[in-house]
Write a structure and sequence with these properties.
alpha/beta; Rossmann fold; globular; about 200 residues
Amino acid sequence: MTASLIVYLHGFRSSPRSVKAQAMVRAVASLPAHERPALFVPDLGDRPAAAIGKVVEIVARERGPVAPLAFVGSSLGGYYATHLAERFGARAVMVNPAIRPYDDLAPYKGTQTNMYSGEAFEVTDAHFDELRALAVPRITRPERYFLLVQSGDEVLDYREAVAYYGGAWQYVQGGGDHAFQGFEAQIPAILRFASRGPDPGTDRA
């Protein structure tokens, strides 16, 4: 495994303390030092534009000249990961990702509470505008993407993700839920995919 820079992106109302984020942290920490990627799990806050800005700063500060770069995102984080992968010519792993969060989150307009910090925040039309600005109509290099979905996702229709990421590496599992049951078992495959270098000529950062 080649050392790489991986940024984990949590979902809506979530945080770096989420179950999947902490599972990633533990998995990376357990690797031998020479195989261990640099993993960042930032607190993205509630505003999409600010979240992307924070990740761009991390990449600018931490990315080496030749190290592979990848984004791993869950739910809304998967939407962010797709935008960032296109922006940097990087790899992306999406776990039960949102495809149209500007529509999916419409019922959440108003006061919401972060599930981990307990902090309240307001979801406004500005959030939806910022999300639309991040949309990727069509991914340019499907081979750089790895989709993991479970058909039992009670929040998002997994079939939308399967169609949107057509041509990408896909792991479609029956049952499960939006949290993605058994996520830890998939982390080795996620890390292997994320730590591969970009295809020649595709890095546009």
